[in-house]
Amino acid sequence: MDVLTWQQVVELLRYDFVRDMLVAGAVLGLLAGVLGPLVVTRKMAFAVHGTSELAFTGGAAALLIGVGVGYGALVGSLVAALLLGLLSRRDSDRDSVIGAILAFGLGLGVLFLHLNTERTANKFGLLVGQVVSIGSTDLWLLVSASVAVLAVLAFTWRPLLFASVDPAVAVARGVPVRGLAVVFAVLVGVATALSVQIVGALLVLSLMITPGAAAVRITASPVRATVLAVVFAEVSALVGMALSLVLGMPVSVFVTAVSFLIYLVCRLVGGKRQRVQ
C-alpha cells in the first residue's frame, strides 16, 4: 500500500479530478444529511437499499449502451422510487415490495454487466463506488439534481415531517400523505442515484442512512437532527476521501468507516443521556 505524504496530497489538489471529487463529496454530504433524518423517521432504510439496486441496474444498462453512468443510475433510481411509492400503498406490503424490486434490480444489473464485454473499472465501481471517475459532466448533473431535490424539499419539508411523525393525524388534518410519500420516494431515488457514484450501490446506506441515524440518537429536535446529520455526512464524505487519497485505498472503505464510527459515538452519547434522565 503506497501512502502519500501531505505535500503530495497538496500537489494532488491542483488536478481537476481531485477538486471535482471533493466538490461532489461536499454536495452529496449536504443532500444526504438533509434527507437522512426523514428517511430514518419514515423507516425507509430498506427502501433506500432497494432503490440503490435499481440505480446499479440503470448504471449497468448505461455502460452497456454507452451513455453516462450517472444518467443511467438516475433513471434506474427514479423507476425504483415510483414503483415503491405506487406499489407499497399499505405499510404491510412495503418490505415485500422492496424485496421483490431489490432482487429483480440486482439480477438485471448482473445480466447487463455480463452482456458488456468491455473491460472497464466502472463495472466494479457501480458496486463499491469510484468517485475519481467523476468528470465535469457528472459533477454538473450532481449539482443540478441536488439543487432540484433541495428546492422541492424546502417547499415540502413541514408537511413531510408532519406526515412522517404522525401520519394518522396528518391525514385527519388534510395533508396529502400518499402524494407526499411518492414525492419523497422520488427525492430519495435521486439522492440514491447520486450516492451510487461515490460509495456504490452496496454501500449507499453509509451516507444516506448512517449520518441521519446518528443524529436522531442525540437529539429529538428535527431541525437540530438535520443540521447534525449534514455535519456528520460532510465529515464522513470529505474525511473519507482525504484518507483515500493519502492511503491509496478505495474511498468507500473510509466513508463507511468514518460514518459508522460517528454512529457508534452518537449511540454511546445518546445512551448515557437516557440513563441520566
UniProtKB/TrEMBL annotation:
Where it sits in the cell: the answer is: Cell membrane; Membrane
- Which keywords does this chain's UniProt record carry? Membrane, Transmembrane, Transmembrane helix, Transport
- Give the record's membrane topology: Multi-pass membrane protein
Q: Which residues cross the membrane?
A: 21-40, 60-84, 96-115, 139-163, 175-194, 200-220, 227-247, 253-270
Protein name per Swiss-Prot or TrEMBL: Zinc/manganese transport system permease protein
Q: Does the keyword Transmembrane apply?
A: yes
Q: Which family is this sequence assigned to?
A: Belongs to the ABC-3 integral membrane protein family.
User: What Pfam families does the database record attribute to this sequence?
Assistant: ABC-3
Natural source organism: Saccharothrix saharensis
Membrane found in the keyword field: yes
